[in-house]
Amino acid sequence: MAEPLLDADKMANSGQSADSLAKPGQSADSLAKPGQGADSLAKPGQGPDSLTKPGQRADSPAKPGQRAEAGCPEEGARIELTEVDAAMGLRAMGLYLVNCGDRPYQVEGYPVVLALGADKKPLDVRILRGGKDIAGGLPPDRAPTVVLLQPGERAGAAIFWRNTYDDITHPPVNAPYLRIAPGIGRPAQILTPDGPVDLGSTGRLGVGAWQPAGPRP
């Protein structure tokens, strides 16, 4: 079931360093939408609904490991998750942005990701750019680029984390849901991975930049 941008050796391939999206103490992440700088940050304590425009709502949670055809959101872009690849405590998961509409869709920079608890409220998790700060042995991260998707085409990205648990003063952190938007100000979707995002006591997720991924098979 190997696909482009899905395995850990291919999901991070560029010379760009992995800079943190969030400042210390911030749990929200942010990324660039077309025309914005990639260093724009979400405000600390942002709730899940703060990433959507007024009058917009997030889609209902997707089924675990969603891959089958689903409805097309009003904006014309749908986010799908791949299965989690787990090895030696390092976790990697691919995500796709599918242009399911009838017109070109442009995306740039990084997905906006929030880790949500069972109550669908944001967890105290830092979002980092790329996987370098999650695991130093990964290949360099791919640089952000503008991706123009024609109908039926996809952009791919990756999420990395470790499940190390070495702080017994606090329970391990698990995120059964992820809230993902293509960029700041874009409508977000709540998705259910094929297993909890088991962060242990690390409190960090690394998110790769959108890259062209071709049409959906």
Number of strands: 13
Largest sheet: 6 strands, mixed
Assigned CATH architecture: Sandwich
**Protein structure class:** mainly beta
Total helical segments: 0
Integer average pLDDT:
75
Separation of the first and last Cα atoms: 11 Å
Helix and strand succession? EEEEEEEEEEEEE
What is the alpha-carbon Rg in Å? Answer: 16 Å
What would you give as the CATH superfamily?
Immunoglobulins
| The number of domains | 1
The CATH topology annotation reads as: Immunoglobulin-like
Choose one word for the global shape. Answer: globular
Unreliable stretches, pLDDT < 50, 5 or more residues?
1-69
What does this structure look like?
With 217 residues, the protein is an all-beta fold. The protein has one domain (60-215): Immunoglobulins (Immunoglobulin-like). 43% of the residues are buried. 0% of the residues lie in helices and 33% in strands. It has strands at 77-87, 90-99, 105-108, 112-116, 126-129, 146-149, 153-162, 173-175, 177-181, 189-191, 197-200, 204-207, 211-215. The chain is built from no helices and 13 strands.
Summarize this entry quickly.
This protein has 217 residues and is an all-beta fold. Helices cover 0% and strands 33% of the residues.
List the helices and strands and how they pair.
Blueprint: E1 77-87, E2 90-99, E3 105-108, E4 112-116, E5 126-129, E6 146-149, E7 153-162, E8 173-175, E9 177-181, E10 189-191, E11 197-200, E12 204-207, E13 211-215
Parallel strand pairs: 5-12
Antiparallel strand pairs: 1-2, 2-7, 3-6, 4-9, 7-12, 7-13, 8-11, 9-10
